[in-house]
Specification:
The chain is α+β, with helices and mostly antiparallel strands. The chain has one domain (2-92). The protein contains three helices and eight strands. The protein has helices at residues 30-40, 54-63, 88-92, and strands at 2-6, 9-13, 20-23, 26-28, 44-47, 50-51, 67-74, 77-85. Helix 1 runs antiparallel to helix 2 (54-63). It is globular.
Length: 93
C-alpha cells in the first residue's frame, strides 16, 4: 500500500492483487477499502453522476475496466469522485 495526498485528502493505493480479508466472514476488495476510506474523509462518491452506496460503486467498477475517475475539486480539495463509464470515443484517445 502507498499513500498520496491531493488537496488534503489522503488517497490510499493498494498494491495487492485479488482481495484482502477483513475477517473470516467478510471479504473486501482493495477498491472498496479505498472508497470506504475516502467516504470517511468526507469525499462524495458517484457513479455516472448518481449517488450510490459505496459497495455498489466498488462492485460495478471492479467488474469492468470501462470506468475512469473524474475528480471534483473545490478550493484545491477533492470534494467528490465520479466514476464515469468510458465511451467508445474515450477509448480511442
Amino acid at each position: 500500500m502507498y499513500v498520496i495526498e491531493i488537496g488534503g485528502i489522503l488517497l490510499q493505493k493498494y498494491l495487492l492483487g485479488g482481495r484482502m480479508k477483513k475477517n473470516k466472514n467478510e471479504v473486501k476488495s482493495p477498491l472498496r477499502h479505498e472508497l470506504l476510506d475516502l467516504k470517511r474523509q468526507g469525499v462524495g462518491l458517484y457513479l455516472n453522476g448518481k449517488n450510490y452506496r459505496t459497495e455498489r460503486i466498488s462492485r460495478i467498477v471492479a467488474e469492468s475496466n470501462d470506468y475512469m475517475r473524474d475528480y471534483i475539486l473545490e478550493g484545491g480539495e477533492i470534494k467528490a469522485i465520479d466514476f464515469r463509464k468510458l465511451s467508445d470515443e474515450d477509448r480511442r484517445r
